[in-house]
């Protein structure tokens, strides 16, 4: 059998080299969210990348909450993040960790550096530290406290820990090189005094480690081998390497950076979304117009579609934006053979079949998915009065119009041929009902005598159906026009949400549950809204329409 040759991405190449050279026996990756907000599509990329690599190389995958910063964390985000990671299918098994559980080891690590003469307590203020740091073109200056003895540093650091000093009066700094061309290496602060209560450790600590010091230690403690992060940390890598080297870990983890995922016409920034939520423009972090993972799930995206999307995006070192249409392409691809194609009328007008027996109801058989017979068939009630889409009837049709107009014959999907014989209007001339006659010999929508009809339209029984609300979405911002107006207000798309209250769906959807999704013939893919849908008041979100001009990039 011929094997497909798939070229490996740059991260896979690094891993394969490390394994071949025996640098690590097996690999371990991690997803390290700060519990300070909801996850979004960009995080999904990171989750699936890290988890995917652990699966590909038979390694391990850790979910680690990076909760070392007591100001920002909110415990409520832990559960939502876990739910999102699980939903995406990234299984951390029993490897769930909290960085705050390592505070003792981090403290010990700092002592080790002090003892090696590689860290010192500094009394400069934050502003002075900034001044001493120099610029991109000028080297920094040594702190006057840089040459404190090991004993003095140990004593002061312990007293920092014991709470003897006010916030901001003392820090612990790594002793590296104030002349380094990389500013991150100019004696970076690794511990600060902060009298704050931590959600996990309470008041035990009044010193907290800085991210650049804490993160490599967390990785090393957990046995992470490849610590994958986004590009903005590239300049921090020398410090990461310095920390794991000076702390003499036997299997030092290595940091690898990749480009963040950006989507066109979509904003993922926490600040922006917070504002949309606070101003009541969206109904929460899971509003279906957003791209938090919770929002995508509520809109009706599947884990498979997001995985396909992330794989199509690939990993690279160059920042770029991906077209939102590619995400839509993925959900269409995922659902098209998996979901039933049912009939729903979003903008109804009545169709009356004048020659159909009064009071008669037939149960007609309809295939669930013409392209996938394994989905079987269902029964759809048919009667004298139906609903059709308003746009499927025209009094004076344009030339190529193939649907209903006076005198024209069309096929009612899975039902009969009907010919339009007239219509009713109200005082203003709006069409209130369309009249037709049917050909009983065309049952099932099959031509009885070889005569052809050009149009097929969908319908829902007016007597036996389910009334529903349907919500249609567009992007909430038009990125090309900018996120903000000149006065600082948000530049929103006024059509981002359209609510249709008077829709009719087939009876077969009566028991549809939250997150169930369907193709509504001609109208797109729809999903039962998990927040607002009720047993007798169904609400559907349009996930995506059926057509797109999007082409897969080569
Ligand atoms: P912030 O730093 O503003 O709190 P964040 O988005 O960086 O937010 P983290 O919780 O720090 O949130 O991120 C967890 C992981 O997700 C990190 O490894 C980060 O690199 C990765 N990540 C965040 N945004 C993206 C993105 N757009 N594309 C890919 N990975 C991302
Ligand atoms: Mg972050």
UniProtKB/TrEMBL annotation:
<comment type="similarity">
    <text>Belongs to the class-I aminoacyl-tRNA synthetase family.</text>
</comment>
<dbReference type="InterPro" id="IPR020058">
    <property type="entry name" value="Glu/Gln-tRNA-synth_Ib_cat-dom"/>
</dbReference>
<dbReference type="Pfam" id="PF20974">
    <property type="entry name" value="tRNA-synt_1c_C2"/>
</dbReference>
<dbReference type="Pfam" id="PF00749">
    <property type="entry name" value="tRNA-synt_1c"/>
</dbReference>
<feature type="short sequence motif" description="'HIGH' region">
    <location>
        <begin position="33"/>
        <end position="43"/>
    </location>
</feature>
<protein>
    <recommendedName>
        <fullName>Glutamine--tRNA ligase</fullName>
        <ecNumber>6.1.1.18</ecNumber>
    </recommendedName>
</protein>
<feature type="binding site">
    <location>
        <begin position="34"/>
        <end position="36"/>
    </location>
    <ligand>
        <name>ATP</name>
    </ligand>
</feature>
<keyword id="KW-0963">Cytoplasm</keyword>
<feature type="binding site">
    <location>
        <position position="230"/>
    </location>
    <ligand>
        <name>ATP</name>
    </ligand>
</feature>
<dbReference type="InterPro" id="IPR020056">
    <property type="entry name" value="Rbsml_bL25/Gln-tRNA_synth_N"/>
</dbReference>
<dbReference type="InterPro" id="IPR000924">
    <property type="entry name" value="Glu/Gln-tRNA-synth"/>
</dbReference>
<dbReference type="GO" id="GO:0006425">
    <property type="term" value="P:glutaminyl-tRNA aminoacylation"/>
</dbReference>
<feature type="binding site">
    <location>
        <position position="66"/>
    </location>
    <ligand>
        <name>L-glutamine</name>
    </ligand>
</feature>
<dbReference type="InterPro" id="IPR020059">
    <property type="entry name" value="Glu/Gln-tRNA-synth_Ib_codon-bd"/>
</dbReference>
<dbReference type="GO" id="GO:0005524">
    <property type="term" value="F:ATP binding"/>
</dbReference>
<dbReference type="Pfam" id="PF03950">
    <property type="entry name" value="tRNA-synt_1c_C"/>
</dbReference>
<keyword id="KW-0030">Aminoacyl-tRNA synthetase</keyword>
<dbReference type="InterPro" id="IPR011035">
    <property type="entry name" value="Ribosomal_bL25/Gln-tRNA_synth"/>
</dbReference>
<keyword id="KW-0067">ATP-binding</keyword>
<comment type="subunit">
    <text>Monomer.</text>
</comment>
<feature type="domain" description="Glutamyl/glutaminyl-tRNA synthetase class Ib anti-codon binding">
    <location>
        <begin position="341"/>
        <end position="439"/>
    </location>
</feature>
<keyword id="KW-0547">Nucleotide-binding</keyword>
<keyword id="KW-0436">Ligase</keyword>
<feature type="binding site">
    <location>
        <position position="211"/>
    </location>
    <ligand>
        <name>L-glutamine</name>
    </ligand>
</feature>
<dbReference type="InterPro" id="IPR020061">
    <property type="entry name" value="Glu_tRNA_lig_a-bdl"/>
</dbReference>
<feature type="binding site">
    <location>
        <begin position="40"/>
        <end position="46"/>
    </location>
    <ligand>
        <name>ATP</name>
    </ligand>
</feature>
<dbReference type="GO" id="GO:0004819">
    <property type="term" value="F:glutamine-tRNA ligase activity"/>
</dbReference>
<feature type="domain" description="tRNA synthetases class I (E and Q) anti-codon binding">
    <location>
        <begin position="456"/>
        <end position="529"/>
    </location>
</feature>
<dbReference type="InterPro" id="IPR050132">
    <property type="entry name" value="Gln/Glu-tRNA_Ligase"/>
</dbReference>
<dbReference type="InterPro" id="IPR049437">
    <property type="entry name" value="tRNA-synt_1c_C2"/>
</dbReference>
<keyword id="KW-0648">Protein biosynthesis</keyword>
<dbReference type="InterPro" id="IPR022861">
    <property type="entry name" value="Gln_tRNA_ligase_bac"/>
</dbReference>
<dbReference type="InterPro" id="IPR004514">
    <property type="entry name" value="Gln-tRNA-synth"/>
</dbReference>
<dbReference type="GO" id="GO:0005829">
    <property type="term" value="C:cytosol"/>
</dbReference>
<dbReference type="InterPro" id="IPR014729">
    <property type="entry name" value="Rossmann-like_a/b/a_fold"/>
</dbReference>
<feature type="domain" description="Glutamyl/glutaminyl-tRNA synthetase class Ib catalytic">
    <location>
        <begin position="27"/>
        <end position="336"/>
    </location>
</feature>
<dbReference type="GO" id="GO:0006424">
    <property type="term" value="P:glutamyl-tRNA aminoacylation"/>
</dbReference>
<dbReference type="InterPro" id="IPR001412">
    <property type="entry name" value="aa-tRNA-synth_I_CS"/>
</dbReference>
